[in-house]
Design a protein that fits this description.
Number of strands: 23
Strand content: 15-25%
Distance between the termini: 84 Å
Helix content: 25-40%
Strand order of the largest sheet: 2-3-4-5-6-7-8-1-9
Number of helices: 19
Radius of gyration: 24 Å
Structural class: alpha/beta
Oligomer: single chain
């Protein structure tokens, strides 16, 4: 009897890069490995979407659509090129309007996509209906998703087999058009037995002719066992990656899985060991200059208690490196457990995983529930759809108070359609104001990436790539060096110590106006910096390390205690800096977009 053919999707160039490098790999560095994968016989790739869309504009000075076009040229017209979409969020962190969801499908179809895997982190089927229609409208295959994870111990009410059966039945009853079904466990926390029972349940519901596949991560150490359980239950496909971006926070390695099924009745994509070995050698050489975060190569026994997706874990730790807060990582992971328990059990996958992370980060940095991360707050209030169970009532009330929003049960698409900033017209006008060509691609880039998209289109976006030597950065561009927060030139913002006293120093090329300001020795864990008086007035310090996203007041403005004077951006969230006293703003010591350290003086209030 011939072996059952199992379709293998190679996730190396999307989820692999996201899970290990936070998505920050330059296209010309990895394209030789794409050619090698093709030569190895791989014809199903995940090549874009998800966080790998925004990361190219945010960190790499690269156009994701251009990358997709070049990828298609390398692999040829017959390869199945797949992207990841977040239902009504598509490749954004916020809900899109119907205009933008339609434009997403249109642009991805135009730029080489064959299949879009489409999920909703809340498993709210309403959030899949319109995006599915758009995907099929433009001739793409739609892979509909049920998202999985395990709940922290003692939690019940969702994320068991009956819950997944209920979700799948809703998909079937809704009439959502689909070509295949994926069960997606971004945190890799589902037990193999639950996987087996879930795939068995699905096979019974949809019959033998529907393609069913499993996606998981090695984050919690059970991915190979889970894949074997899925295959035994009747799955038709699984996702694998290639070394060095396999295992750890990523998918299991292709070679590892080929070894695991030896003697079994499965043919993994018709792949041959020697050809895969050669492909992995080429990939390893392509990535040899990139700094490999140690956490990307490890599994964690704590992840089932505080489910953090592999694809988000390293992206967050890289941002913590940039912000000088990586030492807080164990505390943030620990704090996630309570955040998940109180948040309504949305699956820990983007964007919900980022909401969990941001809230846990805020709880660690500012004190438990002193701040509400905007995404987390809007989720518990219903602005992204219905959570699997009702969120904690006290947290809902706190979110309503902090965000000045009422809870809602309205369709998120209707809310977004009323938001002028989520219309194509708004972003087209914004491009005209900036003298940027108003192509549909540019409109979508700006809408998906907001002001960072505008910066990219104007040629002003930063390059943030971690390599092991500054000598190997492409075209003498700025790179970050390994663990250290070091740029490729001397321009930047630094903290120095002179005679035991900290100073913040702005260093710039040429005859620039350089500022040096004292830095508070002790940092605070409150939502606003403690007032520090000087001869000139009261100093307002940065509550965390990050970038100055917006200065909300002007010198000379009168402010009340608790009024926001500036907004920082850190860990993909906006953090208010509030005045600790009543008074008048005498000066600002920072400018918009400037990097600041925790405790650095932002303003003086007299």
């Amino acid at each position: 009897m011939s072996k059952k053919y199992i379709d293998i999707m190679d996730t190396t160039f999307r989820d692999g890069f996201q899970s290990v490098f936070g998505g920050r790999v330059l296209m010309n560095d990895f394209f030789p490995a794409v050619e090698a994968a093709k030569e190895a016989g791989i014809n199903h790739f995940e090549f874009g979407g998800g966080a790998r869309f925004q990361s190219l504009f945010f960190y790499l000075q690269e156009n994701a659509f251009e990358m997709m076009d070049k990828f298609r040229e390398i692999v040829g017209p017959d390869a199945n090129l797949q992207t990841l979409a977040r239902g009504i969020n598509t490749v954004m962190l916020d809900t899109g309007s119907r205009d933008l969801i339609d434009l997403h499908a249109k642009m991805f179809a135009k730029h080489g996509t064959t299949t879009i895997r489409n999920f909703d982190a809340l498993n709210d089927v309403q959030n899949l209906e319109y995006s599915a229609e758009c995907i099929k409208k433009y001739g793409l295959n739609h892979e509909v998703v049920v998202t999985l994870m395990d709940l922290p111990p003692g939690c019940v009410g969702a994320h068991d087999v009956p819950f997944y059966e209920k979700t799948l039945r809703k998909i079937l009853d809704s009439g959502v058009p689909y070509d295949s079904i994926c069960f997606k466990d971004a945190s890799g926390t589902s037990s193999p037995q639950k996987i087996f029972d879930t795939i068995k349940m699905a096979r019974k519901l949809v019959g033998e002719d529907t393609h069913i596949r499993l996606h998981t991560h090695e984050t919690a150490g059970v991915s190979v066992s889970s894949y074997l359980a899925a295959l035994d239950a009747g799955a038709d496909g699984i996702d694998l990656a290639a070394s060095p971006v396999s295992g750890g926070t990523s998918q299991p390695d292709i070679l590892t899985m080929m070894h695991a099924v030896k003697g079994m009745n499965y043919d993994l994509g018709g792949l041959e060991i020697e050809r895969i070995l050669k492909y992995e050698e080429v990939l390893t050489d392509c990535l040899k200059d990139y700094f490999m975060p140690p956490e990307a190569t490890q599994v964690s026994p704590l992840i089932p208690f505080s489910p953090m997706p592999g694809g988000a874990l390293t992206a967050n730790t890289q941002m913590m490196r940039d912000n000088g807060t990586l030492h807080k990582f164990p505390e943030v992971i620990k704090a996630m457990r309570e955040v998940v328990e109180k948040g309504g059990y949305g699956t820990s996958v983007t964007p919900v995983s980022q909401f969990y992370w941001q809230q846990a980060y805020a709880n660690v940095m500012f004190g438990p529930w002193k701040q509400i991360a905007p995404g987390y707050g809007k989720m518990v209030l219903g602005y992204f759809g219905k959570t699997p169970v009702e969120p904690d009532a006290q947290i809902v009330a706190l979110a309503a108070k902090k965000l000045k929003l009422e809870p809602t049960k309205e369709n998120p698409l209707d809310i977004s359609d009323r938001d002028e900033k989520k219309t194509m017209k708004y972003w087209k006008n914004r491009l005209v104001e900036e003298n940027i060509e108003t192509t549909e691609e540019n409109i979508f880039i700006a809408a998906a990436c907001d002001e960072k998209g505008i910066s990219f289109l104007k040629g002003n976006s930063p390059l943030s790539v971690r390599k092991n030597s500054l000598d190997i950065c492409e075209d003498d561009k700025d790179c970050k060096l390994g663990e250290n927060k070091v740029m490729g030139n001397s321009t930047g913002n630094y903290t120095v110590v002179v005679d035991g006293q900290k100073f913040n120093v702005t260093v710039a090329e040429g005859n620039a106006d350089i500022q040096v300001t004292p830095v508070q020795n002790e940092t605070t864990t409150q939502s606003t910096a403690a007032p520090v008086s000087s001869g000139d007035g009261v100093e307002v310090g940065a509550t965390v390390s990050g970038n100055v996203w917006k200065i909300t007041k002007n010198v000379g403005d009168k402010v009340a205690k608790g009024e926001v004077v500036a907004i920082l951006e850190a860990m993909k969230m906006e953090i208010d800096v509030e005045s600790p006293v009543d008074g008048t703003i005498k000066s600002f010591l920072v400018s918009q977009s400037e990097a600041v350290e925790e405790g650095q003086v932002i303003a003086i209030i007299g």
